[in-house]
Design brief:
The chain is mainly alpha-helical and 254 residues long. The protein has helices at residues 6-12, 30-33, 46-57, 65-68, 89-111, 117-165, 178-249, and strands at 2-3, 85-86.
Amino acid sequence: MVAGDLAYCAAILGKVSMAGGWCTWCGWSPKEWSPTDHDKGQLWTLEAMAEVRASIALGVTVDTSANRQGCVDEPLRTCVPINSYIIPILHTEIGIGNRLLKSFLDWVDLRIENVPDDKIEARYGVYEVRSEVRLHNEIWDDWVNLKGGQLADLREERAMINYTKTLRDDDNKFVHSAAERKDMMEASKARTAAVKPLEKEKKEIVAQLETYKKVLAARTKALSKLTSWRLTHQERSGEALGNLGDRSSSLPWR
């Protein structure tokens, strides 16, 4: 059994960034599952999701959002069926509380602090990408725990095989026969074939994480500039009003 919020479950099943879109447990789109009285959809299985990805990869099915149904990547776990993924009630309650809190903070921004729209949008942009960074950090940690050791072992085995294959004795002759070296070469190739997809997965996950980190840094910087500009503008406005008050106090009719 796997327990986590929607974003985590979607990411583990290869539906990265689809938590707010296609259903994690069936193939329905937001338009279909959003109504409170909607019918039940056809439940996903890992095999059915694999068929969708394979059909698109082979060109049998056109690669569109409707055809993918959220199946954008390989699952990180294939040992747990989809019907064993659950969402803790606490996460649902937290989600409701977050909405209430956001509504209140939006009201404060609008009615009390008079925060301009561009700053509100910048704040939301930072929050949004920060959530993505947190999610992709979890994906990276999960990959390291599940497959990092496997990749390290394969690399170590390949290095040992390649080293053993080249061993020579004191007469500079190969320690192992030609047949044995051939077997070692095949074993090394097999390790390389197993290493390549793992390295590709690792590279893609790290690249996505680094991309979101860069976006977060850029958006945070832009938000800081907006905040600094507003503070400076307020200070200058205050100084201007103070100067105006000083001048008016020196007028003859005062």
